[in-house]
Amino acid sequence: MKQIKLLPVLLCLSILTACQGKGSETMTQESKNSSENVQDASTVNETSDIVAPTKEQVLTARETVLDGMTSEQIERLTENIKIANNQMERAYLYDDIFGKLEDKNSLYWNYFDQKGDIQIDWAYDGDYSERKEIQNRENLTTEEFYEKYGTPVMIYNRFDADNFIDLIAEMQESVQNEALREDLQSLMDETALAKDTHDMECANNIYRILHDMDYYLLRYGIEDVGVYVKDTSILSKYYGVLTVYQQ
């Protein structure tokens, strides 16, 4: 059984093994006793134009979209979406992934473009002033400087965009509900666009789909994860991108 362990930013998002920050669920074991922080998401978002579905609505929608699937297929889909969302969330919170992807030439796009050993950055032992002094003295651009004096930062990327699309397509075959099939298709389409265009907004759209699908459909994040975290603002955020709630 194939499961996502590392994703491209996405997914691919092995993104974030490169992240050294603590993730939403792991970092929160210390605050497991802070269940008083858990709130109903509809209350948290009451001032927003987009109203998050209640727990009852989530449970009803989940039953509807998973109808006809085996318990193994449901578990596989839920686990893979959870892992993909967690990886991308960590990259968003601790690695400024969307800021980095605003540069279409950023090496972070290698998470989408390549698998195996990939370069995601450059390392240099000196400080900023030393680097600028060398650049000015030798009339080097930043790229030329790193190519001459820098050391490539390498990481192993298990899933590139194509691999991630193949995995989602494989799981989509077990889904009987049209609304969920549409959302999985959107996830694949945005991944393909991200690879082809290097448009940060496509990567952002991927994150929003994963976030809503994980916390407001396959799980109920504010309750399933909220007891482990001090700050539930990320869990209670709802982007409103899922087809099932638009019908």
What does this structure look like?
Helix 4 (71-94) packs across helix 11 (200-215) and helix 9 (161-172) runs antiparallel to helix 10. The protein has 13 helices and 3 strands; from the N terminus they run βααααααβααβααααα. The two termini are 33 Å apart. The relative contact order is 0.22. Mean pLDDT is 82; it is low at 1-47. The longest helix is centred in the middle third of the chain and has 24 residues, at 71-94. Strands 2-3 form a two-stranded antiparallel ribbon. The chain has helices spanning 15-18, 41-44, 55-65, 71-94, 97-101, 110-113, 128-138, 142-149, 161-172, 178-197, 200-215, 221-224, 233-236, and strands spanning 7-8, 116-123, 151-157. The protein is mainly α and 247 residues long. The chain is elongated, with a radius of gyration of 20 Å.
